Amino acid sequence: METKKKVALLFGGQSSEHEVSCVSGATVARNIDREKYNLLLIGITKEGRWLHVESVDQIASGEWRQSRKGAALLPDAALKSVLLSDEGRFSLERVDVLFPVLHGLYGEDGCPQGIAELAQIPYVGCDVLSSAATMDKATTKAVLERCGIPQARYAAFRREELDDMDGVVRRIESALSYPVFVKPSNAGSSCGVSKAGSRAQLVEALELAAAQDCKVIAEETIVGRELECALLGGWDAEASGVGEILAGAEFYDYDAKYRSSASRTVVDAPLPAGKREEIRAMAKKIFRAMDCRGLSRADFFLEKGTERVVFNEINTIPGFTAISMYPKLWEAAGVPLPALVEKLIEGAAVTRRRR
């Protein structure tokens, strides 16, 4: 009989997207084929404690956070193991695949991927370089600007530059017109994002974004439809159809994404002739340019009036909640969630040098 692979699934994390990651992690865990894989659940608290979680039900209830059983992914390549602890007793659990379902900082930015590479454990998703580069919006924009990808005009700043707030505001006002969006360069789920329509609002937005990250970007407002495309695979990644976000708020912020019943998603958005293929082709180009692998979701605007496709952002660990577009797009393309999860596990690689 063939030995089952041991999959270690990470969820939770220290980012502002902790709660969403727990929901995503539970969804993925419930859709892993237990006939083919043994599952090791590891929850990371907001304080950074790594805990061994015994059941998926404990994720949904939040009971896992009270666990006294520890877990630590070891960087030792000879062991390829997780160290489990329980009231002073220790054991090693060998791992075949690491599946990080960690949105945002300390999860989507290359941190756990780096530990997996040191341990030489295959892991699901993008490697250290592409994870770190795509997590940083300013870096992503700089790379894609060189590739000719249409995107919103922007200005990027370090937190230290905000000591001269008047100077930063003048630079933004000279480059962009109100209203402008202000974002932390490293954050997800629209956390810390504000729309500023005046100088006073701009100052407030810059301070809010800088409280979440050491880099801040100000971006011109693109008025149009919000569209998304899912990617799956390696260099020749497949692109899904194109979905649309119908936000239940002025823009698709955290509350609109996860708390508003008015927000809706459409998995087969009606589009002008040729735009669907243009978006799918651009998504693949972005995936390659950022050296991604495994999975990503590329987000775009279809600008009102011009019908210009404008890149917004790319997420390398997209959500797997009940309302998340990534699994919905693949289900619409004929890949149900259990099959999607299996494809991701079987596509796990060790390092970018061993693809």
UniProtKB/TrEMBL annotation:
This is D-alanine--D-alanine ligase. It comes from Pyramidobacter porci. One of its GO terms (molecular function) is ATP binding. Belongs to the D-alanine--D-alanine ligase family. Binds 2 magnesium or manganese ions per subunit. NCBIfam families: D_ala_D_alaTIGR, PRK01966.1-4. Its cofactor is Mn(2+); Mg(2+). Cell wall formation. PANTHER family: D-ALANINE--D-ALANINE LIGASE, D-ALANINE--D-ALANINE LIGASE A. The active site is at 17, 189, 324. Pathway: Cell wall biogenesis; peptidoglycan biosynthesis. Residues 141-346 form the ATP-grasp domain. The gene is ddl.
